[in-house]
Backbone:
């Protein structure tokens, strides 16, 4: 599974997962097999993870999303870019995100 | 604008940990009885109508109605749905309903006898995993023992074909059994086989022994079921077949659940953030409780309204039966006892009449664990907290 992440690339949530908000928890539930190593457990993201998820519309690249997030979260643009790159890499590896375009 | 120091992190969490408090508008778990029909005709079963009972089939919820209930459940926060029956795989639209539930983000538990698991269905469970273990009732290791229970020719071969398909595809499942005349000599063989199934994680399989009467109040069938029930003492032998494991589990259990419950009618947790839908679309706190005061017609209302209607009735329900108040309300063995409004309803047609058979089972267990002397009854014991404490620390 491709897990090299570029800020110029566009990603979106895979169609093989469903995201739901239950009692304030943002949870990701695999639909098909082969999604990460989740087994019988569900995966959750915190508020910042959710903020990234909701902006992953398959149109904006990570750089644009990071810029938007600077309005909502503390930290420099570079720090936020590093964080969302790290999470995107993790979620790509698990098959939760897919790349739409970019190298 | 909200600013936070936290960045993006991820974690894994079990579904049961999601809700820290209960309220009348949350539904975490839903059971749906997809049909009352079954292709087996098990001698002890409290629900099975014939597979070809067209009148029963006609009364079942439609695919669309089930999908609508599932959507409502998800909107209320439901994470797990259990499809039961009868035999849920008898429904021609089972795969459609299953995929729909999974696409909504629900985890699915399927209760089945495995006889209708086809290569195609096993493939589906592999590609779109239920995320919960399938639960299979296996009534025998041999044709004679299995079909002595199921009373259907060819059902043994069909069940084992289904089980083997799941094993081949490595689909997690657990097995359970019922102690009945034709399989009572196979307890060890069954237990040894079951423990090796990966989904069992080495645990002993559950055995039903203290059978429910028929939900549909069929008096003739109920006499047959009563005759199949074993004595409390014989049941204890099965429960304690792994004596060390049993005592260890009971210590944990006693620490949490042993106390008198007073005059509260529902002390079992039924209907609190969970519910069941029967094959005809009646929402109820528990599948075995079909008392008219505790069923809500989903064809005329919503799951949310049904849940709200139970919540207060269940929370505020009080026992009136003087025998119950004298005995069960004061008995610290209520954790061991399956006495509940549903059992009382099945046995006596009331909500609060003590069921002596269940009382015997609870007392036999308590005596085995040293919580009671031979002649004592649970409701006579005043120093129960220290007895439980002594047992836990022994």
Residues:
């Amino acid at each position: 599974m491709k897990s090299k992440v570029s800020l110029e690339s566009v990603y979106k949530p895979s169609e093989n997962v469903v995201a739901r908000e239950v009692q304030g928890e943002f949870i990701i539930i695999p639909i098909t097999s082969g999604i990460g190593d989740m087994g019988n457990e569900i995966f959750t993201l915190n508020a910042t993870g959710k903020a990234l998820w909701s902006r992953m519309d398959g149109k904006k690249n990570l750089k644009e999303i990071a810029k938007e997030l600077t309005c909502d979260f503390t930290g420099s643009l570079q720090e936020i870019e590093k964080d969302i790159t790290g999470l995107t890499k993790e979620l790509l590896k698990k098959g939760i995100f897919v790349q739409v375009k970019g190298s | 604008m909200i600013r936070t120091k936290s960045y993006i992190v991820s974690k894994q969490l079990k579904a049961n940990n999601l809700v820290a408090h209960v309220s009348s508008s949350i539904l975490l778990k839903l059971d749906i009885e997809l049909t009352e029909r079954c292709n087996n005709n098990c001698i002890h079963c409290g629900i099975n109508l014939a597979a070809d009972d067209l009148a029963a089939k006609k009364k079942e919820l439609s695919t669309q109605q089930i999908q609508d209930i599932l959507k409502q459940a998800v909107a209320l926060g439901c994470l797990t749905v259990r499809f039961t029956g009868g035999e849920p795989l008898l429904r021609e639209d089972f795969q459609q309903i299953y995929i729909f539930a999974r696409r909504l983000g629900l985890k699915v538990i399927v209760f089945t006898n495995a006889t209708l698991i086809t290569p195609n269905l096993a493939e589906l469970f592999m590609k779109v995993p239920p995320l919960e273990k399938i639960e299979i009732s296996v009534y025998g290791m041999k044709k004679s023992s299995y079909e002595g229970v199921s009373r259907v020719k060819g059902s043994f071969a069909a069940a084992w074909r289904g089980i083997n398909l799941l094993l081949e595809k490595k689909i997690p499942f657990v097995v359970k059994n019922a102690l009945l005349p034709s399989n009572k000599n196979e307890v060890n063989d069954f237990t040894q086989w079951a423990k090796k199934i990966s989904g069992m994680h080495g645990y002993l399989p559950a055995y039903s022994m203290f059978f429910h009467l028929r939900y549909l109040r069929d008096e003739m069938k109920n006499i047959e079921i009563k005759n199949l029930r074993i004595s409390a003492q014989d049941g204890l032998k099965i429960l304690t077949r792994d004596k060390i494991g049993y005592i260890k589990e009971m210590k944990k259990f006693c620490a949490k659940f042993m106390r008198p419950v007073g005059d509260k009618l529902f002390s079992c947790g039924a209907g609190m953030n969970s519910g069941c839908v029967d094959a005809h679309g009646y929402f109820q706190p528990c599948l075995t409780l079909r008392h008219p005061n505790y069923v809500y017609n989903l064809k005329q209302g919503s799951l949310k309204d049904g849940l709200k209607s139970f919540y207060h009735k269940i929370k505020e329900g009080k026992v009136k039966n003087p025998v119950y108040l004298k005995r069960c309300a004061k008995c610290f063995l209520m954790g061991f006892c399956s006495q509940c409004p549903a059992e009382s309803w099945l046995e006596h047609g009331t909500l609060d009449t003590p069921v002596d058979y269940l009382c015997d089972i609870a007392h036999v267990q308590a005596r085995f664990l040293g919580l009671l002397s031979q002649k004592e009854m649970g409701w006579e014991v005043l120093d129960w907290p220290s007895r439980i404490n002594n047992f836990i620390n022994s």
